[in-house]
Please model this.
Amino acid sequence: MTLDILLIILGLLLVVFGADGLIEGASSVARKLGVSEFVIGVILVGFGTSLPELVVSVTGAVEGNSAIAIGNVVGSNIFNVLVILAVTALFCPIDITRINRHRDIPLTFAMSALVLTLGWVFGDGLSRLDGAILLLVFAGYIFLNFRWNGAREDPDAPKRHIPLLPAILLVLGGLAALVYGGRMFVDRSVDLAHRIGVSDKFIAITVLAVGTSLPEFVTALVAALKKHSQMALGNILGSITFNMMLILGTSAVISPMSFADMHWVDLSTLSVAILMLWTCIYTGKRNQLDRFDAAVMLGAACAYFVWLFIKL
Model:
């Protein structure tokens, strides 16, 4: 028990230091390559911080455990929006650009709706064909992001310059620390949860979802505090997209997945979470995810997690 707790703490420390290096390196790479920090947040940081979810869900698919594969993604995305973005906005309100409002956030909502339509409305899970569709949509999304967002700048971002090679090494080192630290945190946390005797679905949607979202949490918070607000938002939107399109798509191609273990409240909360992000732009201070919005989103998160524990 004591060793598990120590390893959990060590995993957290690795994630924190990894996030700091990743943000410094990624922002420098963005400037050197002439692409926006939002694109770097969506593509590079979003993918890097989603690696733990990819490992967990693909492993669940290979083992034929749909509850782990789907629950991890659903729980992670709920946590990404209702907790990570909310807590980040409490510390440092996140500015939302016109393009974020009219294109980036609606696209994220549309892709989440696509997954739920294929796997929940029109069936009881995702087939291999559904997985292939998700992967094709994901490829198109990545291509369009580079075409649409390549020249966007974050005017408030600090202009610290790091040479390209050290910046790339910072990115790689930060990603390695994030993934390894997140994996250590998840493994120890799951061991403790199993000793308590809770279900795979509950572990996936709580312990695994929170643990595998830890890199996004620390990365978004560090990015916002360092005044890279577009990278913080891009990280979360990119992570949600990677989770829904790439991870579920890959998992479904490996092994068709059933939504039978998912309650309608779990899936509805996922849709409501992204819809809340969209509507919060128009409440309180316009074009900003402010502290009032964050408090509302955290309240929704608390209500959902209370429901989870009641159902335990």
Remarks:
- The chain has twelve helices and four strands.
- The longest helix spans residues 164-196.
- The mean pLDDT is 78.
